[in-house]
Amino acid sequence: MVQHRDRAPGRLFRHGSGSISALVFAAGAVALWSTNALVGKFLLATHPVSQVQFLQFAGAALLFALIRFMKREDAPPMAPRAALAPLAVGFIGLVGTMVLQYIAFASMPVIEANLVAYTWPLMVAAAVIAFDNPRRPVLLGLAAALGFVGVALVISGGRENSWFQGDIVGYFAAFGSALCMAFYSVMVGRLATSPDRLLLPSSLVGVALTLLWSAGEGVAWPSGVDLALGFYLGAGPMGLGYYFWSRALKLEGSGKVAVIAYLTPIASTLLLTLSGERLTTTAIAGAVLVIGSCIAVGLERSEAQDHV
């Protein structure tokens, strides 16, 4: 009995310490992700998606390679079959999410593409309802449904009852980006692979694909400030953002961490608004529903984790 009492505080302390670390990592990811749409909007005004994406993946690959070098751990090589799942999760989560997101940014109003792309927490909530037997599925489902109503309002825009103000491909791309990120967020915490080993191969694949894409378009390469901003998007929102988020999910799962992640559409929408982007009254109502639903879903899942 005495030994049990002695060990319990240690376990609680380690759990609390892990929770704090997870929240710090998640907050770092949100801070970086919040700048993604704003910087991307600036670069896409003068450069094609392919170039911006190449700079992003190049910056992310350099960062992940540096992290691997600094860790200097002798991790045993994985068997080819065992490596397929991490490669698939990394490719869908990193390459799929970012390429589709930037196609959306270039094809429709950035502020709307950003809101649609950040519906991935609602998709995670739908997955929880379907597979994880949550404590209050009706409440979770209602919050997610209201969020998707908000997405419909954002897409409608309230402009003379006309939907799809941008290229329809952009809306499908934004929704596809959200699906990819939802898949990644559900799966990454279930893999034993470290974030750097998970993301480095995917970023290298992204470099190769976007290099071929941009070379095929044959346009002048950016330089100076634009070059620096492109590498920032890679090392910052894509590189450290994904690395921090992956570390947070591995430490804490998706309970309290989820609440922090749902702050991203709030901060990024605020930055875009300050830069001159505007939403109609209808789209603002949709944005409120999307953001409010994300927060409600996050709080419900956090409470459920505490209860467990």
From TrEMBL:
Q: Which residues cross the membrane?
A: 12-33, 53-70, 82-103, 115-131, 138-156, 168-186, 198-215, 227-245, 257-275, 281-299
PANTHER family, per this entry? EAMA DOMAIN-CONTAINING PROTEIN, OS03G0707200 PROTEIN-RELATED
Q: Where this protein primarily resides, as one coarse class?
A: membrane
Q: Where in the cell is it found?
A: Cell membrane
Question: Keyword set for this entry?
Answer: Cell membrane, Membrane, Transmembrane, Transmembrane helix
Recall the taxonomic lineage recorded for the source organism: Bacteria, Pseudomonadati, Pseudomonadota, Alphaproteobacteria, Hyphomicrobiales
Q: Where is the EamA domain?
A: 22-155, 170-297
Membrane topology, as annotated, equals: Multi-pass membrane protein
Q: Which Pfam families match?
A: EamA
Q: Which domain of life is it from?
A: Bacteria
What would be one Gene Ontology cellular-component term for the protein? plasma membrane
Protein name (Swiss-Prot/TrEMBL) = DMT family transporter
